[in-house]
Amino acid sequence: MDRVALFFWLWVLFLAVNVMWALAQAVVASAFGARPLAVRIGYGPQLVAWRMAGIGWSLHPITLGSSASFVPEQDDASPEPPLKSRLLKLPPPLHALALAVPWYVQIGVAMACLGPAEGFHQFTEGFPAVFNVAALPGRVERFVGLLREGELVRAWGIMSARMAALNLLPIPSLAGGYLMLLPWRDKSPTWVRPVAAVLLAVSLVWAAWVASLFVRAIL
């Protein structure tokens, strides 16, 4: 498989993970009575937009993440207090499930692609793998090796498991962080914002480094 094809299939795998998350998020939240108003798949300029099931969807070229909006739009000049997220109207247990279940779906995808035992193992191994920076270059090389050999289903399973593990870490900007802060969902403690800013900066540096590892492995 040539370099262009490798980059293309890597993009497709990230897209597949994000589409599965977006669909699961929309279905689960809607089932609990908190249908998202908009779902954004990827980052960057908008490629295409459409409406489905009463939700505004949009696709963007950088498929490294997705987001769902639950806050109704409000005119900036409105004297009314800011509108709250629809998720805040849910009881805390349902709010927690709405955040966590879409990532549990990714674990299910990993189990379907790799088998139940290996899929769950890849998920649990994903937590320490984030912090084992010395081993990351080798892991990235092996993952790119799967793409070179055309093992796309296996690669999808591994990526789904690892992305689920990453997003369930207790970091404020990730699903795990939101779950951790649910007891203070109406008003976050004052320490949350500076801690979240520091962790976000560290996460961006880590993500940029991992992206460079993928580029080097492919080139």
TrEMBL record:
GO terms for cellular component: membrane. Residues 26-183 form the Peptidase M50 domain. Belongs to the peptidase M50B family. It comes from the Bacteria. The chain crosses the membrane at residues 94-114, 164-184, 196-215. It is found in: Membrane. Keywords: Membrane, Transmembrane, Transmembrane helix. GO terms for biological process: proteolysis. Its cofactor is Zn(2+). It is a multi-pass membrane protein. This is Peptidase M50 domain-containing protein.
